[in-house]
Amino acid sequence: MNKKTLLPIGIIFVTIGLFALITSNPPSAARGKPSAAPQMTVDVLPISLQSYSVQLDSFGLVQPRTQSVLVAQASGQITKVSSQFRDGGFFEVGDVLIQLDDRDHKAEVKIAESSLLSAKQGLLEEQARVKQAVADWQRLGNGQQANALVLREPQLEAAKAKVLSAEAQLEKARLTLERTKIVAPYAGRVLKKQVDLGQVVSNNAQLATIYAVDYVEIRLPIKNKDLELIALPEQFRDVAHTPLGSSVQFRSDLVQDQTWQGRVVRTESAIDTASQQLYVVAQIDNPYQAKLNQVSPIKIGQYVTAQLQGKTLNDVMVIPNSAIYQGSYVYTVIDGVLKRKDINLRWQNANDAIVATGLAPGELLVLTPLGQVSSGTPVKINGEATAASEADEKQASRAKLEQRAKALGISVEQLMAQRKQARANKEAN
C-alpha cells in the first residue's frame, strides 16, 4: 500500500476511536435543585372582621318636581309682560307674568250686571203678581184648593231662574276679566316662553313652559343584588306615613366639580321593563338658592352621579379590588409561600369588595400585583424583611463597638460615652 491509501484508513480508525470514547464517557450535568429562597417581596393585609357602611353608586337626570304648560284662559292682546317672563327667569307664586287687554272683558262685566238687574226686577214683579193671585183666590175660591198655575208658581220659579242665570253670567264675566292677568300658580322658573309683548292670544293658547323650584327629583336605578343593602321608603296601602329613605350625595363635573345633598323620598311601584331594575326617586331641596362657593345652580336635564348611603354590615371581610384576580381568586401567604384562594363576593363597588366565602380571619392577603406567578412560589413579607434587616444592622454595629472597646481595653458603655463627649465638644467649638 502506498501512503495515499493508508491516510484515509487512518482517519477512519481515529474517528471510530473518538466516537467510542465519547459514548463510553458521557458528560454529567451539574444541575442543582431549584432554589427554595424567596424570589420576591410582597405586601400583605391581615384579614379581619369589621363593620362596613355600604355606599351604592347610581346615576340619573335632574327633573323638576312639577312641570306644566302655562295656558291663556282668556283672549286678547298682550299689553304687559313681567321682567322675569323670559327663558330661565324666576318668579314667585301669585306674580303677574302677563297682562292681556281687558277692555272688552270689562264691557262684558257691565252687560252681565245689567242683565242681572233686569232679572231681579222681573223677579220682584212676579212676586207681586203671586201675592195678588193668592189674595184673589182667597176672595173668590170658595174655600177650594188652588192649583199652581192659578197661584203663578211656575212663573215665579222662572223669574228666579233668570236671576240665577244672570248671576252666573256676571260671575263668569268677572272670572274672564280676572284671567286677563296670567298669574304664576307656584314659585318656579320659565323653561321656555312662547309669546311676547303685543301678540294677540286666544283662549287655550300656550304661553310658556314652567317648572317648580322648591325641589328637583332624580330617578335612580338600583341593582337587584343591592336591594337588600339599602333602606327603601316603601309605601303600603294601610299605612299613611312613609318614612324617608337613605341620604344621597350627588356629583357633577358639568361646571367644575359640584356636589349636592339629597334624600330618597319614594320607591317606584313597578320594575322598569327596559332595564328590569327597580328605581327610587331622590330629591334635592332648594336647589336654586345661592350657596357658598357655588359656581352654578343645578340644571334641568343635567346628568349626575349619585352615592346612596346603604346599610352598615357587621362582621364582614372587606378587601381591596386590586387584590382580586379575574374577579374570582386572590393570593395569600402561608408559611412563606403563595397560596391561591378561590373566593365568592357578596358585594363589590369600584374600590372595595365584601368576601362571602373563600377567606378566613387571620389570613395574610397579598396586595402586591404578582403578574405571572403560580401557587407555591416562595415569597418574603415586606414588613418582616425590613425588620430582619434592621435587626442584622443593629447586631453588626454592636459587634464593631465590642471589638473596638476590646482593643482599647474599655467597656462598650465607656466607648459610647467617649464618643458622645467628643461630639459634644465638637459642637461646642
Could you explain the architecture of this structure?
The protein is of the alpha+beta class and 429 residues long. It has four domains: 69-211, OB fold (Dihydrolipoamide Acetyltransferase, E2P); 212-311, Elongation Factor Tu (Ef-tu), domain 3; 314-382, conserved putative lor/sdh protein from methanococcus maripaludis s2 fold (Beta Barrel), CATH 2.40.420; 383-428. Helices cover 30% and strands 31% of the residues. The chain has helices at 3-24, 103-140, 153-178, 382-408, 412-428, and strands at residues 41-42, 44-46, 49-64, 67-71, 76-81, 90-91, 96-100, 181-183, 188-193, 200-201, 206-212, 215-222, 247-252, 258-267, 278-285, 303-320, 329-334, 337-342, 344-348, 352-357, 364-366, 380-381. The strands form five sheets. A six-stranded antiparallel beta barrel has the order 3-12-15-14-13-16. Helix 2 runs antiparallel to helix 3 (153-178). The termini are far apart. Residues 29-34 have low confidence and may be disordered.
